[in-house]
Specification:
Ubiquitin Conjugating Enzyme; Ubiquitin-conjugating enzyme E2 27; UBC; alpha+beta; 4 strands; four-stranded antiparallel β-sheet; globular; UBQ-conjugating_enzyme/RWD; 32% strand
Length: 81
C-alpha cells in the first residue's frame, strides 16, 4: 500500500527545491499515486533548454521496488544548435 502521507511530504520537499534542481512533480488528477515529473535538459548538451515530462504511477510495492514509469512525453521549449 502506498504511504500517502510520505508521498505528500516528498512532493512538498521536491517542489520546494525546484528553484535549485529545476525538477518538479505535480499530481495528475486528484490521486497521490499518479504524478507528472518535469525535468530540465542538462546544461551544455543538445537537450539544454528542453523540458521533459515523465508519467509516474506509484504501485504500492515500495519502498524497495520502483513505481511504474511510462508514457514519457517530451516538450521541447528551446534547443540550441
Amino acid at each position: 500500500m502506498v504511504d500517502l502521507a510520505r508521498v505528500q511530504k516528498e512532493l512538498q520537499e521536491c517542489n520546494r527545491d525546484v528553484g535549485v534542481s529545476g525538477i518538479s512533480v505535480t499530481l495528475k488528477g486528484d490521486s497521490l499515486t499518479h504524478l507528472i515529473g518535469t525535468i530540465p535538459g542538462p546544461l551544455g548538451t543538445p537537450y539544454e533548454g528542453g523540458s521533459f515530462k515523465i508519467d509516474i504511477t506509484l504501485t504500492g510495492s515500495g519502498p524497495y521496488v520502483w513505481g511504474k514509469y511510462g508514457k514519457g512525453s517530451t516538450v521541447i521549449v528551446n534547443i540550441s544548435t
